[in-house]
């Protein structure tokens, strides 16, 4: 598949799938990307997300894994919009929680990694991260911090490929069907890739949060 790179010297951004080719190996993903390509972000969801945008800008601006490499705030916004519609109290059928729809097991593991790291940040204490409770995932600051950290982790691991980063987010970074060359081939995952890609491209093109 062909992907358009969106990279600068200081920011490691994820790559929108705007030039995805319909080959046999990625036909179903192409279908999902095509299905959502004209999606527009709802204005009421943008207004809800603006309440948390200072947190997104701050936590997305931290270099978690490599100096001078940060995740795109617009990707984090797109992921939150696709997952919860910017509803901090959202609960999925699989019990994923909050703005980024994080499973407690995943969030707890990430929180402990952050608590033991040398990274320092505002808004969330390392003591809170060390003793994360399930209900803490409804706290926008905690949820956004964990979202940005996990996106940075997957971004680093999968070299900025949006389809692989979202696959790791949705299906799990250790799922057997996910590799450095191929996304997890599940309909739910492919639909999320398509939706996040569409929202991400929309936010980039329209500079909604500039």
Describe this structure in words.
With 210 residues, the chain is mostly helical. It has one domain (24-206): Lysozyme. 49% of the residues lie in helices and 0% in strands. It is built from nine helices and no strands. The protein has helices spanning 27-36, 43-50, 53-60, 73-84, 104-115, 126-130, 140-157, 162-171, 187-206. α1 packs across α9, α5 packs across α7 (140-157) and α7 crosses α8 (162-171). The chain is globular. The protein starts with 26 loop residues before the first helix and ends with a helix.
List key phrases describing it:
210 residues; mainly alpha; Lysozyme; 9 helices; 49% helix
Q: Based on the coordinates given, report the CATH architecture.
A: Orthogonal Bundle
Q: What is the CATH topology assignment?
A: Lysozyme
Helix content: 40-55%
Total strand segments: 0
Can you count the helices?
A: 9
Total domain units: 1
The proportion of residues in beta strands is: under 5%
Structural class: mainly alpha
Overall pLDDT score = 85
> How many angstroms does the end-to-end distance come to?
31 Å
Mind telling me the CATH class?
A: Mainly Alpha
Succession of helices and strands: HHHHHHHHH
Segments where pLDDT lies below 50 for 5+ residues? Answer: 1-12, 19-25
Largest sheet: none
Q: What is the gist of this entry?
A:
This protein has 210 residues and is mostly helical. The protein has helices at 27-36, 43-50, 53-60, 73-84, 104-115, 126-130, 140-157, 162-171, 187-206. It contains 9 helices and no strands.
